């Protein structure tokens, strides 16, 4: 009788070990199938290419609200007579960032065309505000 109980215990223990290994393998395969974690996805950046020397090379992520103008406290302050106090803004959306001109006096230009309504941004786009030229890039 004792031998039967020991054999039953061994079989149950072996079954539990196999169930544990199966669960571990399934969890590992789930991690592999998901691919690149969301944090590793490259985000769009705004990179200043031309303008005042103190702004050249500045890079800003476009996954947060980015306000552009002459007023101190904005995310990108441009000291230029052709830039309005609150000139433009870039608003993050689930579909990607939108560039919006805030009724500025001299306008905002995207890829050579004046912005009259909110427009989506993509990598490679060129934004011109006053004498400043910025390019949308991937981080």
Structure description:
By secondary structure, this protein is α+β, with helices and mostly antiparallel strands. It contains 1 helix and 11 strands. It is 24% helix and 29% strand. The protein has one helix at residues 2-34, and strands at 44-50, 59-61, 66-69, 76-77, 88-91, 98-101, 109-110, 113-114, 119-120, 126-129, 132-138. The strands form 2 sheets. A 6-stranded antiparallel β-sheet has the order 2-1-11-10-7-8, with no helix packed on it. A 5-stranded mixed β-sheet has the order 4-3-5-6-9, with no helix packed on it. Strand 1 and strand 2 (59-61) form a beta hairpin.
Quick structural overview:
With 139 residues, this protein is of the alpha+beta class. The protein has one helix spanning 2-34, and strands at residues 44-50, 59-61, 66-69, 76-77, 88-91, 98-101, 109-110, 113-114, 119-120, 126-129, 132-138. The chain has one helix and eleven strands, in the order αβββββββββββ.
């Amino acid at each position: 009788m004792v031998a039967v109980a020991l054999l039953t215990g061994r079989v149950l223990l072996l079954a539990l070990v196999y169930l544990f290994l199966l669960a571990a393998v399934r969890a590992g395969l789930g991690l592999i199938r998901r691919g690149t974690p969301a944090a590793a996805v490259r985000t769009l950046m705004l990179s200043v290419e031309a303008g005042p020397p103190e702004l050249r090379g500045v890079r800003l992520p476009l996954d947060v609200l980015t306000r552009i103008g002459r007023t101190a406290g904005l995310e990108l302050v441009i000291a230029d007579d052709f830039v309005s106090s609150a000139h433009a803004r870039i608003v993050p959306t689930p579909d990607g960032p939108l560039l919006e001109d805030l009724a500025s006096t001299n306008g905002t230009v995207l890829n050579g065309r004046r912005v009259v309504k909110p427009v989506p941004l993509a990598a490679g786009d060129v934004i011109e505000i006053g004498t400043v030229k910025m390019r949308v890039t991937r981080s």
